[in-house]
Design goal:
This protein is an alpha+beta fold and 199 residues long. The protein is built from three helices and 13 strands; from the N terminus they run ββαββαββββαβββββ.
């Protein structure tokens, strides 16, 4: 089945009209080369589960999902976040996983706490500290970093799939608007956080 999600890069965000809102989220985005390697994971998963495979240019690791947000709050966030630093480093994907409810198959780090990345946990924590200061409610539960590969999958055990570990370094840390439609989601980059390489 053809992927339906689409990413649109924008040099500037077209303001929303008063009274409208956008479904927004923060994410780490891979380079085109790393996305191509991630697609090998997606194709393996698709062969096992079917479903809707993600497009290479929409593969990402979500840091914070904020949901439907009024236009004025989106604009304030776009202005504020462009001065927030985003320290990044390599991410190692080691396993496939599955969210049964939403029928998503994903790639992520290992299950052991030793596989957690201090810089990634730190970025997630710092981002939510800034968002809470602006009035957002931090969700309960532990941060589970992952890259969604398939949606609307069939039955099966993701743990049965195997690939060699994949190391990739985020190319961008972005705020994205998701616009669902009958033909699939359209992602628009609203703004970017300046990247800071890990020492």
């Amino acid at each position: 089945m053809e992927p339906k999600e689409k990413l649109v890069h924008a040099s500037s965000f077209s303001p929303l009209q008063v009274g409208t809102s956008a479904r927004i989220f923060f994410a780490l985005w891979p380079s085109q080369a790393d996305a191509a390697h991630l697609m090998a994971w997606a194709h393996d998963a698709h062969a096992a589960f079917g479903g809707r495979i993600m497009r290479a240019d929409t593969l990402h690791l979500t840091l914070a999902f904020l949901g439907a947000t009024p236009a004025d709050r989106v604009q304030a966030l776009v202005q504020a976040m462009q001065s927030w630093p985003a320290p990044v480093g390599p991410i190692v994907l080691r396993r496939f996983g599955r969210f049964a409810g939403p029928r998503i198959v994903w790639a992520g780090p290992g299950e052991d706490d030793s596989d957690r990345l201090s810089w990634l946990d730190g970025l997630h924590q710092d981002l939510w500290n800034r968002l809470q200061a602006m009035g957002w409610q931090r969700p309960a539960g532990r941060f589970r970093p992952h890259v969604s590969l398939l949606r609307k999958v069939g039955p099966g055990e993701a743990s049965a799939l195997r690939r060699p570990p994949l190391v990739w370094t985020p190319d961008q840390c972005v705020l994205v608007a998701s616009q669902p439609s009958d033909s699939g989601s359209r992602y628009q980059v609203l703004a970017r956080m300046p990247l800071k390489a890990q020492l």
